[in-house]
Amino acid sequence: AILGPPEVNISSCPNCINVTIKLPSSHFRENGKLLSLIDIYEVLDYDITLKSQDEEHKRSREKTTEEVFSTVIEELYPSRNYCVSVVVTASLNKHSIPSPWKCATADLVARQGYHEVAVAGAVCVSLIIAAVLKCLHVAGFILQVKSLPQTLV
User: Fold this and answer.
1) Interferon/interleukin receptor domain: from which residue to which, for each copy (predicted)?
2) Among the four given CATH numbers 2.60.40.10, 3.40.50.1360, 3.30.450.30, 1.10.150.120, the one describing domain 7-106
């Protein structure tokens, strides 16, 4: 039987890319239930090939015992496009088809959106605090200007 190709998705992170891999399905059934490759082989090896504009680099072989798993490729150049292809093999089965290339650009820093959300949140909190203080002031709980009548003191 030929293994593969696995399903691969990649996303950007600061100076890295996150690779999510879903093992290919098997065609073997036991008692009517489709067996996963983990059910059959228990442990599978996977190789990730990383390609950038000027080089192709095969990373060291890793093992998995999960159907769906993620790995992070770090120490990449920011703002550079990287592509990955994954091939899955088993100790008893070296016949496999690599995944199609999937590409993403390594981020320069954490996404800009996070910064904007933090600033907007701080502005909202400040406005809420100002509104609460204004209400307390109007209700007379803080900064009382009028003195209380002598009978209430």
Assistant:
1) 2-105
2) 2.60.40.10
